[in-house]
Amino acid sequence: MWRLLKDYCYALTAKCIGQCVACLPRKLALSVGVYLATAVFWFSHHQKEKACKHLRQSLGIEQPAAEQLARRSFQNIGKNLMEFMQIPRMSSEAIHQLVTFEGREHIDWALDQGKGAIILTAHFGNWELLGASILANGYVIRGITRQLRSKRLDTIVSSYREKVGWQGIDRDGSIREVLRCLKRNELIAILADVDTRTPGIFVNFFRRPAYTPYSPVAFALKTGAVILPTFIIRQPDDSHRVVVEAPLSLQQSGENAQDLLVNTQRFTTVIESYIRRYPEQWIWMHERWKTKPK
What we know:
Layout: H1 2-22, H2 26-43, H3 45-59, H4 63-86, H5 92-98, E1 99-102, H6 104-112, E2 117-121, H7 127-136, E3 141-145, H8 151-163, E4 167-170, H9 175-183, E5 187-191, E6 200-205, E7 208-213, H10 215-223, E8 226-234, E9 240-244, H11 256-277
Parallel strand pairs: 1-9, 2-5, 2-8, 3-4, 3-5
Antiparallel strand pairs: 6-7, 8-9
């Protein structure tokens, strides 16, 4: 009973905060996000140290530089949260003014093949705004999502996505629905940069073995859909730039296990290249290397 009451209070608080943030001027909302994220950075010692450790190990930098990048990473997430709560009230025109879109021709070419396409991205930049911007450009896209621990909070988050036309596919039962979407020549977004419980393999990520979901490759090899590495990059003025790259070149030797390994490494290398260029825009507090090879 106490857990249900606690869950309800958290969800109600989140809903009220979201309604308030949605009414704020954009610059003020971003400033609030930075302020709150900075407070979390300084007072959440465990999360701060995890982020700094990962930055030191991955980029080979010293503690002062790691702290600076970790703080900016927290602040980017704070801005993301404020923007996410304002997205439902944004028109397509407002999104166009906020986000420049590069590489649309790659999506159009992929859809001309009639087999759908896989938008391969990461928890990088403002990934929620990425989905909204693709929708604002007139495409049909769905994303594989993981249900939040709080069902009420998950309902709120899902409602925000649905208001801009974004529908999630639950990760635990996604295979058939993803195949149906690709058969309808739609876009499927997959964020493949975290350590999850889904089937995966170990590939190199910042020179260390990281357990990585191979689903983007598995879907591509099964259906013939292309993989389009796609990233949204926050600009210095807090506008955004979406970059859709050309289809990922896939090895198709007929040896399924080897093809999964080689191609998963290929898309992971692309993700790493963006994180290296914009390290402050990735989630360094995530336990990316938690699962160890046996």
